[in-house]
Design goal:
Helix content is 43%, strand content 15%. It is of the alpha/beta class and 343 residues long. The protein has an 8-stranded parallel β-barrel with strand order 1-2-3-6-7-8-9-10, surrounded by 6 helices. A two-stranded antiparallel sheet has the order 4-5. Helix 6 packs across helix 7 and helix 8 crosses helix 9. The chain is globular. Bound molecules: 1,3-dihydroxyacetonephosphate (13P).
Length: 343
């Protein structure tokens, strides 16, 4: 298959009606934090058994089209010795890989960050492809404060995302482009809208400069919400309206799918907000979907508690959240569904 055919096949497998992406690509320090919250120590074997449990959830492929993996997961196996990327591929779920190497402060832009990991990326992608990965993810982070993001921060982060995306497409990987505007702080929804609009304009200018084929990317942005230290939370309708206003201005219709991150929203909030977008804007030019980490995994982690006897409850919790987000993809979710029994 040539690179264009490869990219087109991957994007059509990733973007499917009623489905979204599971982010299971927590780095070693981040998964250790998630495990610590349930009093479980993070070891290679526990990470393997937890993630293997998630990926073997019966019926997962009804609502999940792709999973983002962390590097170590590519070489780990399920209980029957099948490599975890293969466990996913056999269910028609596309395995992908987080390729960035985390954040550093951006020099001369106090408060802003920049993501590491471009050196040797093309070579790493060639190895990841042999291990079964077909798409990649790279996250840039933008804190909101009175002074952030700076003009330099907007420019430098956009440039990184575009360089990463161009390398991915050259290697036949669909890039998930993730400019995460943090929910931390006490900013208003209006300020969040201003920042996200500026971020998206800079990112799409940079993608254009680097000749990235927009039809073969997935955008993974933050929703427009008030800062989490400014209660009360906005209603799903307010979030949907504010988010779509910004995205209509800044995201070209050529982009096939916008898969939001959950970014610290509760699982219920993330589902309700996505649902409101699809209910209010069924004719949006792009798919409005999810690529949630915490909002899909939190209930599963709570059910798991690091114990093998909780395997069925863990899978049931993941299946429930995946199916509720599946309903949100078509605007058919209602909060009453939270108490229904699944499986
Ligand atoms: P959250 O949904 O927990 O924000 O994670 C998504 C993700 O992949 C962040 O990079």
């Amino acid at each position: 298959m040539n690179t264009t055919a490869e990219l087109e096949a991957t994007i059509s497998d990733m973007v499917q009606t009623g489905k979204g992406i599971l982010a299971a690509d927590e780095s070693a320090p981040t998964i250790a934090k998630r495990f610590a919250a349930i009093d479980v120590e993070s070891t290679g074997e526990r990470r393997r058994s937890y993630r293997s449990l998630l990926f073997t959830t019966p019926g997962l492929n009804e609502f999940i089209s792709a999973v983002i993996l962390f590097e170590e997961t590519l070489t780990q196996q399920s209980g029957d010795g099948t490599l975890l990327p293969e466990v996913l591929a056999r269910q028609g779920i596309v395995p992908g890989i987080k390729v960035d190497k985390g954040l550093k402060p951006l020099a001369n832009a106090p408060g802003d960050k920049i993501t590491q990991g471009l050196d040797g990326l093309a070579e790493r992608l060639q190895t990841y492809k042999e291990q079964g990965a077909r798409f990649a993810k790279w996250r840039e982070v933008y804190p909101i404060s009175e002074h952030n993001p700076t003009a330099l921060g907007l420019e430098a982060n956009a440039e990184m995302l575009a360089r990463y995306a161009a390398i991915c497409q050259t290697e036949g990987f669909v890039p998930i482009v993730e400019p995460e505007v943090l929910i931390d702080g006490n900013h208003t929804i209006k300020r969040s809208a201003e920042v996200i609009e500026a971020v998206l304009h800079a990112v799409f200018h940079a993608l254009l400069r680097h000749k990235v084929v927009l039809e073969c990317i997935v955008l993974k942005p933050s929703m427009v919400t008030p800062g989490k230290d400014l209660p009360p939370r906005a209603s799903p309708e307010q979030v949907a309206e504010a988010t779509l206003k910004v995205f209509r201005r800044a995201v070209p219709a050529a982009v096939p799918s916008i898969n939001f991150l959950s970014g610290g929203q509760t699982p219920e909030e993330a589902t309700a907000n996505l649902n409101a977008m699809n209910a209010m804007f069924p004719d949006a030019p792009w798919e409005l979907s999810f690529s949630y980490g915490r909002a899909l995994q939190e209930p599963a982690l709570k059910a798991w508690q690091g114990k093998t006897e909780n395997a069925a409850a863990t899978q049931q919790a993941l299946f429930q959240r995946a199916s509720l987000n599946g309903a949100a993809r078509t605007g058919e979710y209602t909060p009453a569904m939270e108490t229904e029994t699944f499986i």
